[in-house]
Structure of Rrf2 family transcriptional regulator:
Amino acid sequence: MRLTTYTDYALRTLMFLALNRDKLVTIQDIADAHKIAKNHLTKVVHQLSSAGLIESLRGRNGGLKLGKEPADINVGDVVRLTEHDFFIAECFDINNKNCIYSSSCALKGVLNRATSAFLDVLDGVTLDSFLQKDVVRTKAKDGKPVTVHFKQTSYKKKEAAVSRKS
């Protein structure tokens, strides 16, 4: 299953706001961080704001912040809010009657169960689960992503163990 860019931007916006809870951020801040168009992001922010997931404060010192605690923002709910349909095959659209197998096809049932399983997994995840405080993502000089994991030692110091993603 593939999510739309719109949903991707919605999830990125929520993650950005969750990681920057100590300050108000602007749509431009989010757009710059993710290298995405501000105009497209404005539509996403409007929908998230209308749903109460984020708060938009107007004025000179305004900006955006989460409207709920990260633990109260369910990823499955966000995906359902931002995806216009879950037609993973043309036979899911009741207005499309072009499939010659539709009267006896078992594929639709299998794909329907797969979609349900996909959403069930997302229903078990909150925004808070994306906010692991012990992981820092960065890029190496060669541009490949590097993940730094911090682990607590018995001396309560943080040691960095670097793992490279290929």
